[in-house]
Amino acid sequence: MNVLLSSCGAIYYANHTMENNRLIVNRSEFWRIKKDKRIKREFVLLKSLDHDFPICLYEAPEDRFFASFLKCTHKGCELNVGGGIYSCPCHGSEFSMTGQVLEGPAERDLLTFKTEVHKDAIHVFLS
Protein backbone atom coordinates (compact mmCIF):
# COMPACT_ATOMS: atom_id res chain seq x y z
CA MET A 1 0.00 0.00 0.00
CA ASN A 2 1.37 3.40 -0.97
CA VAL A 3 0.61 6.33 1.30
CA LEU A 4 1.32 9.95 0.46
CA LEU A 5 2.39 11.98 3.46
CA SER A 6 3.20 15.61 3.99
CA SER A 7 4.97 17.24 6.86
CA CYS A 8 2.97 20.44 6.37
CA GLY A 9 -0.64 19.29 6.33
CA ALA A 10 -3.08 17.12 4.49
CA ILE A 11 -2.62 16.03 0.92
CA TYR A 12 -4.94 17.92 -1.39
CA TYR A 13 -6.10 16.85 -4.85
CA ALA A 14 -6.79 20.08 -6.72
CA ASN A 15 -9.75 20.63 -8.98
CA HIS A 16 -8.63 21.18 -12.55
CA THR A 17 -9.80 21.05 -16.12
CA MET A 18 -8.31 19.30 -19.12
CA GLU A 19 -7.93 21.21 -22.37
CA ASN A 20 -5.76 20.41 -25.40
CA ASN A 21 -3.57 17.91 -23.51
CA ARG A 22 -2.91 20.22 -20.59
CA LEU A 23 -4.23 20.41 -17.06
CA ILE A 24 -5.41 23.84 -15.96
CA VAL A 25 -5.39 24.61 -12.25
CA ASN A 26 -6.73 27.81 -10.72
CA ARG A 27 -4.29 29.54 -8.37
CA SER A 28 -6.99 29.54 -5.69
CA GLU A 29 -6.42 25.77 -5.33
CA PHE A 30 -3.20 26.61 -3.46
CA TRP A 31 -5.16 28.27 -0.65
CA ARG A 32 -7.18 26.71 2.14
CA ILE A 33 -9.21 28.19 4.97
CA LYS A 34 -8.55 26.95 8.48
CA LYS A 35 -10.24 28.62 11.44
CA ASP A 36 -10.93 31.75 9.39
CA LYS A 37 -7.28 32.00 8.28
CA ARG A 38 -6.04 31.66 4.71
CA ILE A 39 -3.16 29.20 4.54
CA LYS A 40 -1.01 28.72 1.47
CA ARG A 41 -0.37 25.17 0.25
CA GLU A 42 3.17 24.46 -0.97
CA PHE A 43 1.88 21.91 -3.48
CA VAL A 44 -1.27 20.28 -4.81
CA LEU A 45 -1.77 16.91 -6.45
CA LEU A 46 -3.47 16.34 -9.78
CA LYS A 47 -5.08 13.20 -11.15
CA SER A 48 -4.91 12.70 -14.88
CA LEU A 49 -6.87 10.01 -16.71
CA ASP A 50 -3.77 9.40 -18.84
CA HIS A 51 -1.55 8.52 -15.85
CA ASP A 52 -1.73 5.84 -13.16
CA PHE A 53 0.08 8.02 -10.61
CA PRO A 54 -0.65 11.56 -9.45
CA ILE A 55 1.22 14.63 -10.65
CA CYS A 56 2.51 17.00 -7.98
CA LEU A 57 2.30 20.70 -8.80
CA TYR A 58 4.78 22.51 -6.55
CA GLU A 59 4.96 26.28 -6.17
CA ALA A 60 8.49 27.67 -5.84
CA PRO A 61 9.50 31.27 -5.08
CA GLU A 62 9.21 33.93 -7.76
CA ASP A 63 5.95 32.58 -9.20
CA ARG A 64 7.53 29.41 -10.59
CA PHE A 65 5.72 26.06 -10.69
CA PHE A 66 7.12 22.56 -11.15
CA ALA A 67 5.05 19.51 -12.09
CA SER A 68 6.43 16.02 -11.48
CA PHE A 69 5.00 12.55 -12.03
CA LEU A 70 5.03 10.77 -8.66
CA LYS A 71 6.39 7.45 -9.94
CA CYS A 72 9.87 6.52 -8.76
CA THR A 73 12.26 5.93 -11.65
CA HIS A 74 13.95 3.08 -9.77
CA LYS A 75 11.21 0.42 -9.41
CA GLY A 76 8.00 2.36 -10.04
CA CYS A 77 6.70 2.92 -6.50
CA GLU A 78 4.45 5.88 -5.75
CA LEU A 79 6.39 8.69 -4.09
CA ASN A 80 5.63 10.47 -0.83
CA VAL A 81 5.58 14.27 -0.74
CA GLY A 82 6.84 16.28 2.22
CA GLY A 83 9.68 18.22 3.70
CA GLY A 84 10.51 19.83 0.36
CA ILE A 85 11.33 16.52 -1.35
CA TYR A 86 9.75 13.47 -2.95
CA SER A 87 10.77 10.23 -1.26
CA CYS A 88 10.28 6.61 -2.22
CA PRO A 89 8.88 4.42 0.57
CA CYS A 90 10.08 1.26 -1.20
CA HIS A 91 13.84 1.75 -1.54
CA GLY A 92 14.65 5.20 -0.17
CA SER A 93 15.32 7.24 -3.31
CA GLU A 94 14.83 10.98 -2.90
CA PHE A 95 14.10 13.66 -5.49
CA SER A 96 14.02 17.44 -5.38
CA MET A 97 10.78 19.28 -6.02
CA THR A 98 12.09 19.94 -9.54
CA GLY A 99 12.33 16.16 -10.10
CA GLN A 100 16.11 15.73 -9.86
CA VAL A 101 17.59 12.67 -8.13
CA LEU A 102 19.04 13.63 -4.75
CA GLU A 103 19.65 10.14 -3.35
CA GLY A 104 19.67 6.69 -5.00
CA PRO A 105 19.19 3.93 -5.77
CA ALA A 106 17.23 5.79 -8.52
CA GLU A 107 19.56 7.02 -11.25
CA ARG A 108 17.11 8.89 -13.48
CA ASP A 109 15.25 12.12 -12.72
CA LEU A 110 11.47 12.10 -12.48
CA LEU A 111 9.24 12.69 -15.47
CA THR A 112 8.40 16.39 -15.31
CA PHE A 113 5.97 18.53 -17.25
CA LYS A 114 6.30 22.05 -18.62
CA THR A 115 4.24 24.65 -16.74
CA GLU A 116 3.09 28.16 -17.63
CA VAL A 117 1.25 30.77 -15.61
CA HIS A 118 -1.64 32.50 -17.38
CA LYS A 119 -3.34 35.14 -15.20
CA ASP A 120 -5.07 33.18 -12.41
CA ALA A 121 -4.28 29.71 -13.73
CA ILE A 122 -1.34 27.34 -13.98
CA HIS A 123 -1.15 25.23 -17.13
CA VAL A 124 0.57 21.83 -16.97
CA PHE A 125 1.44 20.51 -20.43
CA LEU A 126 1.20 16.72 -20.54
CA SER A 127 3.08 16.36 -23.83
| CATH homolog superfamily | Rieske [2Fe-2S] iron-sulphur domain
Query: What is the CATH third-level topology name?
Result: Rieske Iron-sulfur Protein
Distance between the termini: 29 Å
- Which series of helices and strands comes N to C? EEEEEEEEEEEEE
Structure in words:
This protein has one domain (17-125): Rieske Iron-sulfur Protein, CATH 2.102.10. The chain has a seven-stranded antiparallel sheet, with no helix packed on it. It has no helices and 13 strands. The radius of gyration is 14 Å and the shape is globular. It is mostly beta strands and 127 residues long.
Main attributes of the structure:
seven-stranded antiparallel sheet; 127 residues; disordered N terminus
